[in-house]
């Protein structure tokens, strides 16, 4: 029995007329009659009572019609579910992110993704860049949003948002009245840094920039969370070089100033396993790219 047999049978059962059913199916009547005959032969039961003027369903035919509707409904559901999976509309997605991502595009990305893919179960994990790299390798997360590009075997990286670096100062700092600062004026300052083992690329970027300015920064404190770093600056524990997006974290007692030197930009990067072909991951990456492009176009206006 083939699926077309069910469609032929349903058409005749609903029309109770072979000619009208044939017209509805866009076939001629003799092949339709033959198909119904073959179906009855296969089932070894009569489905229709035929007279010269009328066609009626037998009791067996009535049962078979009801079950045929059920089969087609289940098939439709199976097709829809399969297509949803293929489009990445169902499933689970575990996302790792550095805390500073929450001050950039990430909240908007999550909001839009939830609207467009409401059935996908999102699991969010706030992790450092190095923790995300390990989590990706161990398949504990599917996508990472990390700070700075990292060359890592088995992982793909794509820039989500390039960012400048700015200086965070206590608002009572002696240099707070200046609108722009040179790194060379900070040689005697105490710095609050992100730990090297948690984000080696970002850490080395700051150290190298200071060394180019003629000094190695004196580290007063290290902190894993960017908002903790800003909090320590507000407490007068030191100064910090942070991504420009941290200015969206409104903390009293802290001011931000641009730096005169052309410090290499940092950025947020998407990271995922190179050979992971999950439709859900593809759907998320596509949405992220569109959102980032839309925001970029808005900033250019």
Automatic annotation (TrEMBL):
UniProt cross-references to CDD domains, sorted A to Z: PBP2_LTTR_aromatics_like
The organism of origin for this protein: Aliterella atlantica CENA595
Cellular compartments per GO CC: protein-DNA complex
Family membership noted in the UniProt record: Belongs to the LysR transcriptional regulatory family.
Record flagged with keyword DNA-binding: yes
Keyword Transmembrane: no
Keywords in alphabetical order: DNA-binding, Transcription, Transcription regulation
GO molecular function list: DNA binding; DNA-binding transcription factor activity
PROSITE patterns: HTH_LYSR
Database matches in InterPro entries: LysR_HTH_N, LysR_subst-bd, WH-like_DNA-bd_sf, WH_DNA-bd_sf
Name the record gives this protein: LysR family transcriptional regulator
Pfam families attached to this UniProt entry: HTH_1, LysR_substrate
Ranges of residues in domain HTH lysR-type: 1-58
């Amino acid at each position: 029995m083939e699926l077309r047999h069910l469609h032929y049978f349903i058409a005749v059962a609903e029309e109770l007329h072979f000619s009208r059913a044939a017209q509805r199916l866009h076939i001629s009547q003799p092949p339709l009659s033959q198909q119904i005959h073959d179906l009855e032969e296969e089932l070894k039961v009569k489905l229709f009572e035929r007279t010269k003027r009328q066609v009626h369903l037998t009791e067996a035919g009535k049962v078979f019609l009801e079950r045929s509707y059920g089969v087609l409904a289940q098939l439709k559901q199976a097709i829809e579910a399969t297509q949803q999976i293929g489009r990445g509309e169902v499933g689970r997605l575990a996302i790792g992110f550095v805390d500073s991502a929450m001050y950039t595009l990430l909240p908007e990305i999550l909001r839009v993704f939830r609207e467009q893919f409401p059935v996908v179960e999102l699991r969010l994990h706030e992790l450092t860049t190095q923790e995300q790299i390990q989590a990706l390798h161990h398949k504990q997360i599917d996508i990472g949003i990390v700070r700075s590009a990292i060359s890592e075997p088995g992982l793909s990286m794509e820039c989500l948002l390039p960012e400048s670096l700015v200086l965070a100062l206590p608002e009572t700092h002696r240099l707070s009245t200046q609108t722009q600062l040179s790194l060379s004026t900070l040689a005697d300052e105490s710095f609050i840094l992100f730990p090297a083992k948690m984000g080696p690329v970002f850490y080395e970027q700051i150290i190298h920039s200071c060394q180019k300015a003629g000094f190695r920064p004196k580290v007063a404190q290290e902190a894993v969370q960017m908002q903790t770093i800003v909090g320590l600056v507000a407490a007068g524990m030191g100064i910090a070089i942070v991504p420009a997006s941290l200015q969206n974290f409104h903390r009293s007692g802290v001011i931000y100033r641009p730096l005169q030197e052309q410090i290499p930009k940092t950025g947020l990067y998407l990271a995922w396993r190179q050979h992971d072909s999950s439709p859900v991951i593809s759907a998320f990456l596509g949405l992220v790219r569109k959102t980032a492009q839309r925001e970029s176009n808005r900033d250019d206006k």
